[in-house]
Write a structure and sequence with these properties.
With about 300 residues, this protein is an alpha/beta fold. It has eleven helices and twelve strands. The chain has two domains: about 190 residues, Rossmann fold, CATH 3.40.50; about 110 residues, UDP-galactose 4-epimerase, domain 1 (Alpha-Beta Complex). The site of serine has 11 residues, from loops.
């Protein structure tokens, strides 16, 4: 029987992945772990294990005792927070990954999922429809850790047969929690301000387009990749994944269709430099060809779904 463990389960992506997997595989087949408990009642229906993913012995014990077939290792310090704490970001992102990969190498789990990001790209990548195999010259510690992590995942697959799979997520937009420490997170905040009837102060330039994705698409992509037959998974660094793309100005206008009084003011800070080094949009031809990926949400659908969900 399949047993799924999510490490870093109390974060923005973890909460949504747990709930998606509970619906698909049953509550008892999904276990969450983190250094803090989740405040989400749905997540808390399932088993929770307190776990510091940087503690090698603790990770090994959980994976030895738990009988997990699948591990989703989501622990990371995101782009903006990582620039404030470069060495801590590197340490957290890499050490926790090695702890999981080493256990997988020993055969303690069958499959590993590890998220990468559009942050692997840097100023020299083509901005529009950025290709899978274009140059990766990130300017953030987060991006550097994701490029290194991708290459290590490939190494563990090729040298030790570890079935580790990965996606380069765009900015993820979901209603269940506020994200923390990312550059794309402005977009989630905008919805909250709009529904509070408040002006939104955006830390990016109004025309800074970024690749984005509704959480439902991200969770579906994750589970589709994990369920794909092993021979279909040809990219062993990490797959480009495309949802939709918009700028703060376009988001403002789309929200205004439902909340006409919504207003965004722009005060770009250091995060604008990070955003300007990333692609505007992504080419995900390989994901489509290899395991049949196709996004559902466009900008209009994403905005409608977020406003509806947050109103509820
Ligand atoms: N959402 C992430 C960030 O902004 C990018 O993967 O840091």
């Amino acid at each position: 029987m399949e047993r799924h463990l999510v490490i870093g389960a109390s974060g923005q992506l973890g909460i949504e992945l747990i709930i998606g997997m509970q619906a698909k595989y049953g509550v008892n087949a999904v276990v969450s772990s983190d250094i803090r408990t989740s405040e989400d009642a749905d997540v808390n229906r399932g088993e929770f294990i307190l776990l510091d993913a940087t503690d090698q012995k603790a990770v090994r014990k959980v994976l030895t005792d738990g009988g997990f077939t699948h591990v989703y290792h989501l622990v990371a310090m995101l782009s903006a927070k990582g620039e404030d704490n470069p060495l801590e970001g590197w340490e957290l992102n890499m050490k926790s990954l090695f702890n999981v990969l080493e256990c997988a190498k020993e055969g303690l789990v069958e499959k590993v999922f590890w998220p990468s990001s559009i942050a692997v790209f840097g100023p020299n990548a083509h901005k529009q429809a950025t290709a899978q195999d274009t140059c990766c010259d990130p300017t953030t510690v987060y991006g550097v850790s994701k490029v290194a992590g991708e290459l290590w995942c490939k190494y563990y697959f090729e040298h030790y047969g570890v079935d580790v799979r990965s996606l380069r997520y765009p900015g993820l937009i979901g209603h269940r929690s506020l994200p923390g420490g990312g550059t794309t997170d402005y977009a989630v905040e905008a919805f909250h301000r709009a529904l509070e009837g408040k002006e939104f102060e955006c830390y990016l330039d109004e025309n800074e387009a970024l690749p984005m994705m509704h959480m439902d698409d991200a969770i579906r992509a994750t589970l589709e990749l994990m369920e794909a037959p092993i021979d279909c998974v040809r990219v062993r660094t990490s797959y480009n994944l495309s949802g939709c793309s918009f700028s703060p100005f376009e988001l403002n206008n789309e929200i205004k269709k439902t909340i006409p009084e919504f207003k965004t003011v722009y005060s770009p800070d250091i995060r604008q430099q990070i955003a300007s080094s990333w692609p505007d949009s992504i080419d995900d031809t390989d994901a489509r060809a290899d395991w049949g990926w196709k996004a559902v949400y466009d900008v209009e659908g994403l905005v409608k779904a977020m406003l509806d969900a947050l109103k509820r």
